[in-house]
Amino acid sequence: MTTKKQKYDSGCPVAFALDAFGDQWSLLIIRDMAVRGARTYGELLKGWEGISTNILAQRLKHLEEKGLVTKRKDPENWRSFVYELTQKGRDLGPVLAEIMLWSGKYNTAPHAMTGTVEKVRSDRTGFEARIRSGELP
Amino acid sequence: MTTKKQKYDSGCPVAFALDAFGDQWSLLIIRDMAVRGARTYGELLKGWEGISTNILAQRLKHLEEKGLVTKRKDPENWRSFVYELTQKGRDLGPVLAEIMLWSGKYNTAPHAMTGTVEKVRSDRTGFEARIRSGELP
């Protein structure tokens, strides 16, 4: 996970993608940056699923190495950093959209966020365009 | 991974999906069943990426628990089993398609399977329909 080398370098496009974000947390971090507008470590740590600080740090480093996320000094607070999706990261919008539509079909739990799925279903083009442009929600 | 309880039950559609297949191997197993027509444990073990037998067994069990895969006795060989995607598993076709298109854009390795990506790009509807219908490649 923490090296630049691919774990399984078969050339298959599914394997290539999973090497970049195929774990239980990376797409949740990308979601928080793409959809919820999280930009700092503290904001990412406060995601809904309770990621631990060591896993967050490890995954951010990996996503940086894979070119999906950039890290820079916060111009407004030089002791802090800002994390942003690269174009490569923002191009995962359509992947997020399909994943959300699939879950919308199969998650029957009473607390399932059906409103979020409905937003994607009713305006998928807009959802993807907002992520692609880096526009905050 | 091996329990039916969700790891993080936030209600978010991305989290719901990652709880079912968000690891380095599950989507490769699903790819082997959906695209390459693998149906037996032996065929799945011979995937391109060299999955180990204990990880394969663990992931198949998890995918069964999540309702994406069924396991039954092979009618032609009662000492063997056949694994098949359920409708819920086959409905991941569009997710696989978007992942492949993303990799097609960013995997610049000389051995990247560009032909596979091109097939999806040129006939995405057909690709998804074949997976959805359970038709073998």
* Helix amount of chain A: 40-55%
User: What is the structural class of chain A?
Assistant: mainly alpha
Q: Kindly estimate the percentage of residues of chain A that lie in beta strands according to DSSP.
A: 5-15%
Q: How many strands of chain A?
A: 2
Largest interface: A-B, 47 and 47 residues
**Cα radius of gyration of chain A in angstroms:** 15 Å
Terminal Cα separation of chain A, in Å? 30 Å
- Biggest β-sheet: strands ordered side by side in the sheet of chain A: 1-2
Mean pLDDT of chain A: 91
The helix count of chain A comes to 8
The coarse silhouette of chain A is: globular
**Which runs of chain A of at least 5 residues are low in confidence (pLDDT < 50)?**
none
Main beta sheet strand tally, sense and closure of chain A: 2 strands, antiparallel
The helix/strand order of chain A is: HHHHEEHHHH
- Subunit organisation of the chains: homodimer
Description:
2 copies of one chain form a homodimer. Chain A has 137 residues and is mainly alpha-helical. In chain A, 53% of the residues lie in helices and 11% in strands. Chain A has a two-stranded antiparallel ribbon. In chain A, helix 6 (93-106) packs across helix 7 (114-122) and helix 7 packs across helix 8 (124-133). The radius of gyration of chain A is 15 Å and the shape is globular. The mean pLDDT of chain A is 91. Chains A and B meet through helix 1, helix 2 and helix 6 of A and helix 1, helix 2 and helix 6 of B.
Overview features:
homodimer, 137 residues, mainly alpha, two-stranded antiparallel sheet, 8 helices, 2 strands, 53% helix, globular
